[in-house]
Amino acid sequence: MKVLAAMSGGVDSAVAAARAVDAGHDVTGVHLALSKNPQSFRSGARGCCSREDSHDARRAADVLGIPFYVWDLSDRFAADVVDDFVAEYAAGRTPNPCLRCNEKIKFSAVLDRGIALGYDAVCTGHYARLVRTDDAIELHRAADAEKDQSYVLGVLTPDQLKRSYFPLGTSVKAEVRAEAARRGLAVADKPDSHDICFIPDGDTAGFLERRLGERPGAIVDESGTRLGEHAGSHRFTIGQRRGLKLGDPAGDGKPRYVLDISPVTNTVTVGPRESLEVGEIVGIRPSRLGWSGERRRAEVQVRAHGAALPAEVIMDDDGCRAVLDQPATGIAPGQALVIYDGSRVIASATIDRATTDTMTAVPGPA
């Protein structure tokens, strides 16, 4: 099989490419240049896609003895990931840029170009498992629960999964680093990248303000009483506690949390933690990965490393609703709602809203 190995310059993608070579595949390494003006070096574990990362990827490919290329996808990344990120915050939502990058770049732009060049699959260092059957392919959680990335892959289509290859799905991170050291890969001890790759200094609010401008507005309580002023609603997300900078404490002395963000009025509503509790999550733009019914018991995950929440889920072509067994907090519109049957991802949607109201849950076949 001809395999295109996406090599970020980190330890995971390097070992994934090595395992593809060991499996007898015809492997070519490719590093994605996603920034128009990349930094020369990474700042510890912050960011990625620097010139240092490109050099690390090339050195790993040299050790493995495979061809290596750099593909400039900076225009596509800027349009599909960065601009989307800014637009979502401007609309009062909280996007997940890693999920969007997987959907639009790694498994769309790269896969499409790879197929056009005669490759059969794209190999990455994601921690997730693929189970292939006679008539389907299943996406499952990784063996390493702490590193599991099935959530950010839940937006992929069945056709994309059929041409995906995740060699690290059955491994834990310590094993991967030890293997990299044994293979003589210089990235064996390189820190994992964290935060948002295109905001290497970690200042998300500053990044957004440079693109959206200063947009001061009111911070109000649930009754609409003005409590203070914010420097821009893009600085907040649902469930946030820190950074409100309200001089007067709440009447009961308890902390306040962000309950709602209204881009129309540029208002941030705050209140007690119990007001964050929701019982139903409504999703739009649904996508199925093996679930063909309309109603079933399942578990839903609402953030990349969040807990799986038992729920009853109803889905059709227009959207889905998840009625939670127990109330949850901090559900942010714009994030993904990924639906699991045990370890298997069976569907996903984009969170549109969450409410305290719940529909009457009618038991249905699994």
Automatic annotation (TrEMBL):
Its main location: cytoplasm. The record marks H126, Q335 as: Interaction with tRNA. It is an enzyme of class 2 (transferase). Keywords: ATP-binding, Cytoplasm, Disulfide bond, Nucleotide-binding, RNA-binding, Transferase, tRNA processing, tRNA-binding. ATP binds at A6, M7, S8, G9, G10, V11, D12, S13, L32, G125. GO terms for biological process: tRNA wobble position uridine thiolation. Residues 207-271 form the tRNA-specific 2-thiouridylase MnmA-like central domain. One of its GO terms (molecular function) is ATP binding. It catalyses: S-sulfanyl-L-cysteinyl-[protein] + uridine(34) in tRNA + AH2 + ATP = 2-thiouridine(34) in tRNA + L-cysteinyl-[protein] + A + AMP + diphosphate + H(+). One of its GO terms (cellular component) is cytoplasm. It comes from the Bacteria. Residues 294-351 form the tRNA-specific 2-thiouridylase MnmA-like C-terminal domain. It is found in: Cytoplasm. Residues 147-149 are annotated as: Interaction with tRNA. The active site is at C101 (nucleophile), C197 (cysteine persulfide intermediate). Its EC number is 2.8.1.13. InterPro entries: MnmA-like, MnmA-like_C, MnmA-like_central, MnmA-like_central_sf, Rossmann-like_a/b/a_fold. Catalyzes the 2-thiolation of uridine at the wobble position (U34) of tRNA, leading to the formation of s(2)U34. Belongs to the MnmA/TRMU family. This is tRNA-specific 2-thiouridylase MnmA. It comes from Microlunatus parietis.
